[in-house]
Design goal:
The complex is a heterodimer.
Chain A lengths: L8 H4 L7 H18 L11 H4 L16 H27 L12 H13 L10 H14 L2 H19 L1
Chain B lengths: L2 H10 L3 H24 L2 H18 L9 H23 L4 H14 L7 H11 L3 H12 L4 H8 L3 H21 L1
Helix pairs in contact in B: 1-2, 2-3, 2-4, 3-4, 4-8, 5-6, 6-9, 7-9
Classes of the chains: A mainly alpha, B mainly alpha.
Chain lengths: 166, 179
């Protein structure tokens, strides 16, 4: 039942390696069989790989809260402000003048030094060099004041003093 | 082993080695030359022949006997050859025509080509034909396959095949006269 080859190779001019058709029966059969039995990718797996294949779920990891960097910076800023406020409150007594300070508590030498200095440099303690201008300002304001305003002011002052005396 | 026995063994999975070896032995030469007329180079032909037999072996169970086994295998070989050339063109970043030109030029230095200058010119002329005309011309001129068998292999009518061959022959003659 062998098909007769009608090919006219002399027309073509092609030739094949010597003994090519004699040797391809066995080699071609082996190649084709092994290629068609393997996967199309050409990869092979170890014997009984899929039978022994098992997969255990990985242990559940403890989840940690993720804090965004922006949120963290806000917390740092708030904490810094709070810490500054607390420290400021602790040291506020050192900054503010001591209200319980008595004249007798002052060092005598300090008082003398202070007085000497003010006597030597009186200009630093006089706000207006020309006192006449101060008087002018006071007089002008007084002139502008109405009698009722003066009386009202005096009444308030008297009432306050009475209240304090009580 | 007769053809129907080969088919039966391969489809049932009995005596597959023996049956397959008989199949290769029976059809290897004709399939080889059919593939060679399309892909030109011996090494490429060897690869395509191997791929053809792999396809046959894998798909033999789907063969229903509507056509001759050889026609069915011929169709697989034709498709495998064209697919191979398309892949080669893509791999070499060439158009189909550029690849054909490259293959014809390769023949001049190919140790498995011993054709004359006229035969080389004939290959160049065939190279210019559209794919269908090229296939029909090769099958008719070189392989001497009857139109009826060709019709079964290519799935075209005898009239269409005759027309294809006629136009192909005219073009080849024109090319050879010009050159």
């Amino acid at each position: 039942m062998k098909h007769k080859s009608h090919i006219n190779t002399s027309k073509l001019g092609f030739k094949v390696p010597e003994g090519y058709f004699d040797s391809i029966d066995q080699t071609m059969a082996c190649k084709v069989k092994s290629k068609s039995e393997n996967s199309d990718f050409g990869y092979r797996v170890p014997e009984s790989y899929f039978n022994d294949f098992s997969l255990s779920a990985p242990p559940k990891e403890s989840t940690s809260k993720v804090i965004k960097l922006k949120e963290l910076s806000r917390w740092v800023a708030a904490a810094s402000i709070l810490a500054f406020a607390v420290l400021s409150a602790l040291h506020i007594d050192d900054i503010s003048p001591d209200e319980n300070l008595q004249f007798s508590d002052l060092d005598r030498d300090m008082i003398e030094d202070y007085l000497d200095y003010t006597m030597e440099n009186p200009e630093e303690f006089i706000e207006y060099e020309n006192t006449s201008s101060i008087n002018t300002i006071i007089n002008d304001n007084i002139v502008n004041l109405k009698n009722n305003d003066i009386l009202e002011y005096l009444n308030d002052e008297i009432e306050d003093q009475d209240f304090e005396n009580e | 082993m007769k053809e129907n026995e080969i088919i039966e063994h391969l489809q049932k999975g009995t005596k597959t080695d023996e049956a397959f070896q008989a199949l290769i032995s029976e059809h290897k030469v004709r399939l080889y030359w059919h593939i060679r007329t399309i892909v030109k180079l011996h090494e490429d032909t060897d690869d395509v022949l191997q791929n053809t037999f792999i396809k046959v072996f894998k798909n033999i169970k789907t063969f229903k006997g509507d056509s001759k086994l050889f026609s069915w295998m011929y169709r697989i070989a034709t498709n495998e050859s064209i697919t191979f050339l398309n892949k080669k063109a893509k791999k070499m970043k060439l158009s189909d025509q550029e690849l054909n030109d490259f293959l014809i030029d390769s023949l001049e230095s190919d140790v498995y080509f011993e054709g004359s200058e006229i035969q080389l010119q004939l290959q160049k002329a065939i190279d210019r034909l559209p794919q269908q005309q090229k296939t029909v011309f090769n099958m008719r001129y070189f392989e001497d396959i009857p139109y009826e068998e060709m019709s079964e292999i290519l799935g075209s009518s005898v009239g269409a095949l005759k027309s294809n061959y006629h136009h192909a022959r005219k073009k080849v003659e024109k090319f050879l006269k010009q050159d």
